[in-house]
Amino acid sequence: MPESFFILSKDYSELAVDEIISIAKTYDRFSKIKIISNLVIVQSKINWEKISKRATFVKISGQILRKMSGLFLDEENFEVLKNAHTFVCRIINLSSNQFNIPELESSMGDMISKFSQAKVSLENPDITIYLIFTNKENFFGFSRKTKPFVRPKKVRKFPHELDWKLSRAMINLIGLREGQTVCDPFCGTGTTLLEAESMGIHAIGLDFDEKMYQISKENLDANGYKSKLMKDDFSGLNKIIEEIDGIVTDLPYGRASKASENPEELLKKFVSMLPRKKKVAVMCKKEFKEKLNMNPTKKYEIYRHKGLTRTILIK
Ligand SMILES: C[S@@+](CC[C@H](N)C(=O)[O-])C[C@H]1O[C@@H](n2cnc3c(N)ncnc32)[C@H](O)[C@@H]1O
Prior knowledge:
By secondary structure, this protein is an alpha/beta fold. 28% of the residues lie in helices and 29% in strands.
């Protein structure tokens, strides 16, 4: 079974690791995961590119070829370079040992050149060979050149919009697949809808405010996306409940964003409407999390600035 590796950025580290686990398990529930600090190793039927394309916080990813005991490599290790014209060697040092990384990369590059026809190229090589050092184990892996992912455009913004990274991670944390449908009943500028469609997931957005509805529409149109938009109160969720597989939303805060009613009343009503058997990810003010009474399976605290910590609840 192929093993992939993912080096994650250290922002929101717990969320970042859980996102990888969730994506891997969405496609192969028997995926096995190993976590070594910000390195996540996944043994799964699905390949690293598929996980990497969906994940939000991946800095570097690729396939593991084998564990390494020393720095000695032989011809067999370079099968992956067979049809490549160019390659580069990169060292990822997560261990507490100090290495002169540029020197090591360059001498590994020279050594690999002896076994292969491929030439070293620092810019856009066909193959990147990785040597990953940790305090416990060392790994030898590679990645191929991939097409850069085109992010959805947001032509209209608004101050209280959700950070696209959190929105994308929330969709991934509830394990939706391509072709399924997510609903954001407080869609605002359409962040959730844009992220969902960029991953091949259908989306339905509701917002009771004409202005926000128009902003979402413009943002979807700018990308040629076809999410369904309804200018409606969130209770309109009842009308579409059979069409959706999950809910991802960022609740109104009462200050910056317009709310139809007292935020606490709104929360109560919203939670009472949540379908029991569907997956839900909600972002709210930290102070609201107890009042939400959602029995989440997982919680994440997101520090925004002094005075505003938000919580993501997953059910
Ligand atoms: C925190 S914002 C959502 C921001 C959104 N996630 C984004 O990235 O732009 C909350 C949204 O809820 C909408 N809203 C407030 N009360 C509502 C209600 N009763 N029904 C539907 N939408 C409502 C507001 O108009 C606002 O756009």
